[in-house]
Structure to design on (300 residues):
């Protein structure tokens, strides 16, 4: 599958290291329009602003374990918003326990990726979401 | 924690560290011989510290667990590992790579947690913090034992510490 290079992606992680790794991987996969936020709260502001100017975020990759507003609560807020509830959401977490997967799925996450992961695994997860969503 | 229990407890951390380094740093690591650490001085210049709390449940009994994972790197090793992870070419420690160690420790503990659950440990992890500077010290919780595990990598030696009650 070839990805649409200008698709607007938002990477949310409190660790600049992981944002950089994810951005590197996404660039390798051909994505060129990648925006960053260092927590869920800032991500919400970016998503709102992008929506208001008619250039919305089209895909979110978010860490789970973040201070202030964590990835799960960030996802729940989005799911309550008519404007943003359909943005595809890939949750990224260091916690590999099955219980976490279930919690995220119940909250409406599109897919789930456990750190550490390779660019190939990220590609497969994104492709699965695109296939499911018909993107 | 008995010696046998410590060996069981530490194994998932070593295994997770191997997976994290192979996947994200693109290198293999080899753990050396563990020893009991008697002082609070860090063996590296940069340390990532993660608190662990939770319970150990076995045979219908539960006991509290309080532990800490510390990873310490000499500057040279740290920068080489950060460069490999981020595809960068930094020559010295700087803000752009200051949370690399914390992210590595986060991934190691996150993965170890899953295997430890199978052994009866139900654990929570804190958000990791980083301590920098030569000869810095680590604040271990009182009454705990610190086991120091040297780790060899292609980028140089670094240290894992597991602090348990």
């Amino acid at each position: 599958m070839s990805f649409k290079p200008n698709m607007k992606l938002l990477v949310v992680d409190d660790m600049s290291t992981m944002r950089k790794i994810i951005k590197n991987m996404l660039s390798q996969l051909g994505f060129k329009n990648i925006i960053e936020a260092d927590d869920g709260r800032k991500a919400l502001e970016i998503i709102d602003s992008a929506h208001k100017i008619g250039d919305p975020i089209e895909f979110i990759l978010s860490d789970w374990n973040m201070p202030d507003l964590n990835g799960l609560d960030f996802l729940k807020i989005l799911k309550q918003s008519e404007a943003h509830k359909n943005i595809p959401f890939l949750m990224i977490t260091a916690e590999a326990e099955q219980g976490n997967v279930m919690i995220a799925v119940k909250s409406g996450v599109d897919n789930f990726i456990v750190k550490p992961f390779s660019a190939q695994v990220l590609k497969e997860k994104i492709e699965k979401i695109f296939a499911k969503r018909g993107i | 924690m008995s010696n046998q229990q410590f060996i069981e407890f530490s194994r998932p951390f070593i295994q997770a560290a191997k997976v994290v380094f192979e996947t994200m740093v693109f290198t293999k690591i080899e753990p050396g011989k563990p020893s009991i650490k008697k002082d609070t001085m860090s063996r590296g210049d940069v340390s990532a510290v993660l608190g662990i709390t939770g319970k150990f449940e076995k045979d219908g009994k539960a006991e509290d667990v309080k532990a800490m994972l510390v990873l310490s790197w000499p500057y040279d090793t740290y920068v080489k590992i950060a460069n490999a992870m981020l595809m960068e070419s930094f020559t010295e420690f700087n803000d752009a790579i200051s949370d690399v160690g914390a992210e590595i420790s986060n991934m190691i503990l996150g993965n170890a947690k899953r295997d430890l659950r199978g052994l009866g440990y139900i654990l929570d992890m804190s958000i990791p913090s980083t301590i920098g500077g030569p000869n810095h010290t680590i604040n271990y919780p009182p009454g705990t034992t610190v086991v120091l595990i040297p780790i060899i990598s292609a980028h140089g030696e670094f240290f894992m510490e597991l602090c348990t009650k």
